[in-house]
Amino acid sequence: MAAAYRVDARRWSELFETLMDTIETRFVRPEPRRRVRDFVAGLLAPLPVKNCWTIAEHAGDAGPGGMQDLIGRASWDDALVRADVRDFVAARLGHPDGILVIDETGDLKKGTHTVGVQRQYSGTAGKIENCQLAVHLSYASPFGHTLVDVALYLPRSWTEDPARRLEAGVPDTVGFATKPQLARRLVASAVAGGLPCRWVAGDEAYGSDPNLATALRGLRIGYVLAVACSHRVPTGLGTYRTDQIATGLPRHAWQRISGGSGAKGQRYYDWAFITLPLAADQHAGHHWLLIRRNRTTGELAFYRCWSPERVALRQLVTVAGRRWSIEESFQATKTGLGLDQHQHRRWKAWHRWTTLVIAAHAFLAAAAAVSTASPDGLIDITVNELRRLFHALILDPARRNTDVIAWSIFRRRHQDSAKISHYARQALTEP
After folding, report:
1. pLDDT at residue 80 greater than cutoff 60
2. Most CB contacts within 10 A, which of 9, 183, 217, 366?
3. Same structural domain, 318 and 402
4. How many structural domains is the chain composed of?
5. Is residue 212 part of a domain?
């Protein structure tokens, strides 16, 4: 078993070097070119908190300035790095039946100065909170799944406030865009970049936008997009709410099909689908309403579906089930890679941090895909387990006691300077 891990570790190392060699070409100067490799290695490390300080200490730097410069001031284009990551994913996880999954995630924040923050609904918190929201694009195939692209949602309270835009470094070319509009741009960029895909999946926030569905049909990409129970669809007998259609379905219309494998077994639901011939438009193709029923609670979920060619119910169910892969990616990147631990307020720094987290996650997904089959009694290696092994076997630096002591001195000196400043400020106003 250990021998198999050693063989895989060499393959993991080769993949890591391949990805980093590609990304490094986006940097002109040697300092950021070296640091980006150390930065991604720090994201992969089991640090209790991920920020420029802890990552710099892990890399053996004398202080955090170099990592802060990489994220905030160095000259490099995060969009080009994400394009490199997309090409890396296409080469290692690409499949003609690939699925693009769109969803947003929120990062809770205090204060009002972090770019994009305002009180808004966060699915992460399940309520209205002070937070940032970002739309992510994930790629799922039979080989694995990973995040590949991102767009920060900028509310009107930001786009229409020149002072806030200037303070956060928001480019003049960035205007207000809804989350479905951001999703359209991400999908179009992935398709133009050659990422092999046949389907798009998303929740109600995206299924409720008819312009997104129209754009996907124009790209000839099938979709399975969740819609609300109040969504109205045209049938041969008229236009009805989706919940009304579900109520009138006969018993034989339902089929029990697994929406995918889970940690505790297959995720079986009852499914039904109805052809919607009156929904046809200039893009031709085939429209369906897909309905999912929970076997225990009877709770219903609804999806608008389209494909350039006819497909079986099982195919639509597979796409609907793969939408949850992006939730797994969010969990992996937040708990293991520090996606939501950034301490940056400005537009450029936020995108750079997020881009390097996406690169780290794509590497883990690709490395998991090339791992040898596990022997009986072991599940196949997961992204989270691979991250632990990769750090222990490949990345863990030979730490010197002098490095540990030097960083202790650096932190205490910084804290002393801060303490002096606080006391001096207080002395100006207090007796």
Report:
1. yes
2. 183
3. no
4. 2
5. yes
Structure tokens at 355: 């881009």
* CB-based contact 393:172 (threshold 8 Å): no
Residues 302 and 209 in one domain: yes
Within 10 A of 8 (CB to CB), how many other CB atoms are there?
A: 20
- 322, 356, 380 - which closes a domain: 322
In angstroms, how far is the first alpha carbon of the chain from the final one?
A: 69
Here the tokens at position 17 are 């070097």
Lowest pLDDT segment from 149-163, 289-303, 368-382: 368-382
Give the span between the Cα atoms of 225 and 216, in whole angstroms.
Answer: 11
What is the reported pLDDT for 2? Answer: 46
Q: Residue 221 belongs to what domain range?
A: 204-322
Domain end position, chosen among 322, 344, 366:
322
Please check whether residue 102 is in contact with residue 188, taking contact to mean a CB–CB distance below 8 angstroms. Answer: no
**Does the residue 216 lie in any domain?**
yes
pTM confidence score: 0.89
User: Residue 196 has which token pair?
Assistant: 């092999």
DSSP string over 386-408: HHHHHIIIII-----HHHHHHHH
Q: Which residues of 265-277 are buried (b: 16+ CB within 10 A; e: fewer)?
A: eeeebbbbbbebe
On whether residue 87 sits in a domain, the answer given is no
The tokens for 289 are 């309403």
Residue 70 belongs to some domain of the structure: no
pLDDT in tens, 32-45: 999 999 999 999 99
